Amino acid sequence: MEDIIIVIKKISKKKLKQLAEKRFGDLVKAVVDIKRGIMALGGELHADEEAELLKNGSQQQNLWGINLYPDESKEKWIEFDSIINIRPSQNNRSRDIESQEIREKIKNIIKNLTE
How many domains is the chain built from? Predict the structure, then answer.
């Protein structure tokens, strides 16, 4: 998908805002690979970003969908909500990421990849 970018080093808040404005206005959908410490951004669906990461060598069990709201404060800008997160086989039975450990990994990755 041409609009999807895989982020392996820091991306600016300005670029995140541009991605948000281009697609949804106030949010950017993202899929984070908690093992590799990278993420995909810019897709219309989390599933599109997930597919790009899978093509790039990620493994499905490590991929989690989130939404980023670049205009929100750092405490509120990550939303742990995506259909791709529904996976009973990993004890996650809702769209929300239920594991606090996985949430913390995602927060650290987002902190490392954004400025």
Answer: 1
> For residue range 60-84, what is the model confidence (pLDDT) as tens digits?
999 999 999 999 988 899 999 999 9
- Are the CB atoms for 75 and 68 separated by under 8 Å? no
AA letter at 21 = E
- Span 6-16, pLDDT tens digits: 999 999 999 99
Supply the range of the domain harboring residue 72: 5-113
